[in-house]
Amino acid sequence: MPADLFPGFDSHWIDLPDGRFFARSGGPAEAPPLLLLHGFPQTHACWHRIAPALARTHRVVCLDLKGYGWSAAPQGDAAHEDYSKRRMGQEAVAVMDRLGHAHFTVIGHDRGARVGYRLALDEPGRVARLALLDILPTVVQWRRIEADPRLYPHWPFLAEPAPRPETEIGRDPDAYFEGLLRAWTGDGTLDAFAPAALDLYRQSWNVPERIHAACEDYRAGAGPDRAVDEADLAAGKRLACPVLILPGSGFVGRGGLAPALQAWHETFAPQATGEAIASGHFVAEENPEATLAALQRFLAD
C-alpha cells in the first residue's frame, strides 16, 4: 500500500475461520479504540483522509471487510449467512479481540455501517458509540425499494441469484463500479477519490472472487440481514449506545437530515443525533473536513 495513505499505521494479517483478514492500525496504544468499517465497492482505504486525524486521540483500526480489499473472499453458503452483517460483525469483534480491544467505538459507512449497527444490536457490551455514515436501516431500505424500484436499482440487481450479476459485471468491472461511484458522488465524477485509493478499489473489484463476494453481501442483505432486522423490530430491540447519523445530501439524505433521522428514530435508534454533510454518498472522501469535525464532536461528548 502506498505509505502516504496511512502514515505511521501498522499492518495486520489476522487468521479467522473464514480466512485471513487485513487491517491497519494507528494512534496511541493506550487511547480509546475506534473501528472504521468501509462500504461497497471500496476498501479500508476510503478512510485515508480522516483516519490520521482520528488517530491523534484514538487507537484507530481500519478493517477490510470479508470479500473486499485484501481480506478473505470465500465462496459463501447457500443461505448467504456467511456474508450476513451478523457474521461480519462477529468477524470484526474477533479482529478487535486479536488486537487487544474488547470495548470500542464503531464508525461505519455504507455496508460497513450495516455491519456496525448489527454488531451493536447483537453485542451491545462491545460498542461504546456508533456513527453511521449515509445509510438507512436495511429493512427501511428494502421497503423503499419495494415502493419505488427506481430508487436503488443496484440492490435487487446484486441480490439476484448467481451467476447473472457476476457475469454481467465481470464483462467490464471498471465500467460497472466506476459508474456507480460517479452516480453516487455529488459532482458525478471520480475527482473526489485519491488516485492511490481508487487504484486499490480497482484492484479489489477486478478479482472475480471479490465480484462474487460483493453480490453475496447484497444477497445477505435481501435475506438474513433483512430477516434479523424485522425480528429485532418486532421484539422492540434498540441500540443501547449513543448513535450519530451522518447522511450525505444526495443519496440517503434526500430532503435533508430530517428523513434520515426519522428512519432511525422509528426503528433502532430513537435517541440518535445527526448532522447532514454537504456531500454525495462518499462523505469521508468528498467532504472529509465536515465529516471529521462532526465525528470529533461526537467522540468528545
Overall geometry comes to globular
Structural class estimated from helices and strands? alpha/beta
Just name the CATH architecture. 3-Layer(aba) Sandwich
* Percentage beta strand: 5-15%
* Integer average pLDDT: 96
- Identify low-pLDDT runs: none
SSE series: EEEHEHEHEHHHHHHEHEHH
The total strand number stands at 8
CATH superfamily: Alpha/Beta hydrolase fold, catalytic domain
**What distance lies between the first and last C-alpha atoms, to the nearest angstrom?**
34 Å
Computed CA radius of gyration, to the nearest angstrom: 17 Å
What's the CATH C level? Alpha Beta
- The total number of structural domains is 1
Polypeptide structure, described:
Keywords: Hydrolase. Helices cover 43% and strands 15% of the residues. It is globular. It has helices at 51-54, 85-98, 111-122, 138-147, 154-158, 164-170, 173-184, 195-205, 208-234, 257-265, 283-286, 288-300, and strands at 10-16, 19-26, 33-37, 59-63, 104-109, 127-133, 243-246, 273-274. By secondary structure, the protein is an alpha/beta fold. It has a single domain, classed as 3-Layer(aba) Sandwich (Rossmann fold), CATH 3.40.50.1820.
